[in-house]
Amino acid sequence: MAFRPSPARAPASLLREAKPLRAMFGEALRLERLQRLLESQLQPAAREHCRVASWREGCLLLIVTDGHWATRLRYQQRRLQRQLEAMDEFAGLLRIQFKVQPPPPPRHKPAATPPLSRNAADSIQAAAQGIRDPGLRAALERLASRGKTSD
Prior knowledge:
Number of strands: 3
Order of helices and strands: HHHEEHHEHH
CATH class of the largest domain: Alpha Beta
CATH superfamily of the largest domain: DnaA, N-terminal domain
Number of domains: 2
CATH topology of the largest domain: GMP Synthetase, Chain A, domain 3
Distance between the termini: 58 Å
CATH architecture of the largest domain: 2-Layer Sandwich
Number of helices: 7
């Protein structure tokens, strides 16, 4: 018996019908709205270092990129809490917690290969001429062609 995947459906259809997906999407929109409100109250320099992680039962959890910014925000915590409590979305705010979580390191990009000199390309091309295997010969010729344009 072969596995038959279900037919593809439009994202809007999935969001309307799949309750877990709809709830997750709704929560993401809610956090995005709370993030914008938080950023409106933060100093411009702090905005890129702080994001809303959750808002439940009177506790706002903020993720901060490093200890330096967490300390700076803790000094401003009372002012920030008063400003946020004035907004309808943060009604009932009892405390703000800060959690330090460094951003993930950038993905490693493969190192750029050094250019192939004309002399090396000519040597590879000459070696390719003596090869009988067509696959290997083609691969060596492709390699040699990379070096002929750079000098």
